[in-house]
Write a structure and sequence with these properties.
Elements lengths: L8 E6 L7 E8 L9 E9 L4 E5 L4 E9 L2 E5 L2 E5 L4 E4 L4 E5 L5 E9 L4
Antiparallel strand pairs: 1-2, 2-3, 3-10, 4-9, 5-8, 5-10, 6-7, 6-9
């Protein structure tokens, strides 16, 4: 199955999880109806300068951020790091947040997957 960018379902969330500003979420694939895997989200996040997603957790899930464009500050369970194009982070059961600290738009591929049952 192929999908062109103009077909992505898109939404804007203000102050997402207590973060500053707005985040546009472009849903690349929808769970359940399109994906048969344990992915809950496969999306591209578009985050303007100074904007971000506040601290949150994904108990029983993993979240992967992959930086496609821009510069991000990521807090992973109290450890703050700067990520740039090509960097990735795996989070989940710990609190984490992401913020655009650059002058350009931050573009992030974000995937959330549920843990496999034992």
């Amino acid at each position: 199955m192929i999908r062109k960018p103009e077909a992505f379902r898109s939404e804007v969330r203000e102050n997402m999880r207590g973060g500053a500003g707005s985040v546009r979420i472009e849903h690349l694939w929808e769970p359940g109806s399109e994906m048969k895997s344990a992915n809950r989200m496969v999306s591209r996040l578009i985050i303007g300068p100074g904007c971000g997603i506040g601290p949150h957790r994904h108990d029983g899930e993993d979240e992967i951020f992959y930086i496609l464009q821009g510069t991000a500050e990521v807090d992973d369970d109290g450890s703050c790091r700067i990520l740039t194009v090509g960097d990735t982070i795996l989070t989940g059961d710990a609190a984490h947040s992401i913020k655009n600290i650059g002058d350009d738009t931050l573009v992030v591929l974000a995937m959330i997957s549920t843990h496999k049952p034992n």
